[in-house]
Amino acid sequence: MMKKVRVSSILLSVVFLIFVSTKVFSATYYVDPVNGTDNPRVSTGSKQSPFKTISRAASVAIKGDSIALLPGTFKHENGERFPLSIADGVKITSAQSIHMVDGRMVSRISGKKPDGSRYSSLSEI
């Protein structure tokens, strides 16, 4: 009986640590197409040192992370790579409208859906 309780406690602890670590260690990467840079020696993707392209943020983001888009136009001429490749479970957020240009079309992505609720991931756009 004592061995069963101990194994259960260990399993519960492991599950708890996995849950907490995904919440504690998730990151938010900021992307500013106007003032950001993709130079790894200069930019960390933080709010104070944002990346320039979604592509750069997507290259470091993993499941549970978020990419926060600041206002501006994301286009190939500024270093953006289309089509975008983003890992499963990475959320894309935007507080204001942005534009993406891939040479063929311009997409206006707003931080809110037509019904007033907010987008929670790129797959909803």
Could you describe the 3D structure shown?
The chain is an alpha/beta fold. It has one domain (26-114). It is 24% helix and 19% strand. It is built from two helices and six strands; from the N terminus they run H-E-H-E-E-E-E-E. The strands form two sheets. Strands 1-2-4 form a three-stranded parallel sheet, with helices on one face. Strands 3-5-6 form a three-stranded mixed sheet, with no helix packed on it. Strand 5 (98-101) and strand 6 (106-109) form a beta hairpin. The longest helix has 23 residues, at 2-24. The protein starts with a helix and ends in a 16-residue tail after the last strand.
Blueprint of the fold:
Layout (H helix, E strand, L loop, with lengths): L1 H23 L3 E4 L22 H7 L5 E4 L2 E4 L15 E4 L3 E4 L4 E4 L16
Parallel strand pairs: 1-2, 2-4, 3-5
Antiparallel strand pairs: 5-6
Features:
single chain; 125 residues; alpha/beta; three-stranded mixed sheet; disordered C terminus
Rg is 19 Å
Beta strand count: 6
Number of helices: 2
Strand content: 15-25%
How do the strands of the widest beta sheet line up side by side? 1-2-4
Q: Ends: how far apart?
A: 53 Å
Query: What is the 3D form?
Result: elongated
Q: What is the string of SSEs from the N terminus onward?
A: HEHEEEEE
Number of domains: 1
Which structural class should the secondary elements be placed in? alpha/beta
Q: Average pLDDT value?
A: 75
Give the helix proportion (percent range).
10-25%
The major β-sheet equals: 3 strands, parallel
Low-confidence stretches: 103-110, 119-125
